[in-house]
Amino acid sequence: MSAVSIGWSQGASEREARVEVIRAAWHGAYSHIFSRAEIDGIFDGSLEGEGSWVAARVAPAGTLAARERGRVVGLASLGLLRGNDAELAAFYVRPDRQGRGVGLALWARVLEELALRGCRRMEVWTLARADARRFYEARGCALFGEGSFVVAGHREPAVAYELAIPERPLATGSQSMPDL
Description:
Blueprint: E1 5-8, H1 15-30, H2 36-44, E2 49-51, E3 59-68, E4 71-80, E5 85-93, H3 102-116, E6 121-127, H4 132-138, E7 142-151, E8 154-164
Parallel strand pairs: 5-6
Antiparallel strand pairs: 1-3, 2-7, 3-4, 4-5, 6-8, 7-8
Helix pairs in contact: 1-2
C-alpha cells in the first residue's frame, strides 16, 4: 500500500476528481442494483437521484479526500443534522484502491473531525443491497431506519446506520476547517 494522506478537498479545483471517484465507485458497487444507463445518467446530469433522508441534512460540513501520490482515490462528505448529530453523506473509494486501507484511514479521520465539531452521533445511509453494509457493520454501526433512493422512477430500499462518535483528542494534529 502506498502512503495515503487525508485532507480537506480543494473545493472546486478537485470537483472532477471527486466525481470520477464516485462514478467509479458506483459502477463497482451498484452495477447489480442500477443499470449502466441509470448510473451514467446520474453523473452526466440527465437523471436525478433522491434519497428519502436528504431533507434532514441541516448543512454541509466539508469533504475529506484520500490522496495517493496527489491523486484523489477516496472521499468522505460530511453533513450536519440537528441536535449535535452528523451524517456521513458520501463515502467512496475507487474500486482499484479498496482493501488497501484507504477506507479505514478516511473513516478514522471522519470520526476525528466530527468529534472536533462536538458531534455525538453519526448516521450513514446506504442501499439495502449494497456490500458497503458489511463495512459499516464491522465498524460498529447499528441499523436504525429504512428509506429509499430513487433514480428516474427506479426506487431502491435504503437502510440507515448510526454510530456514537467517540470522544477523543484529534490524532491527526489538523484542526483546519474545510473550504465549503
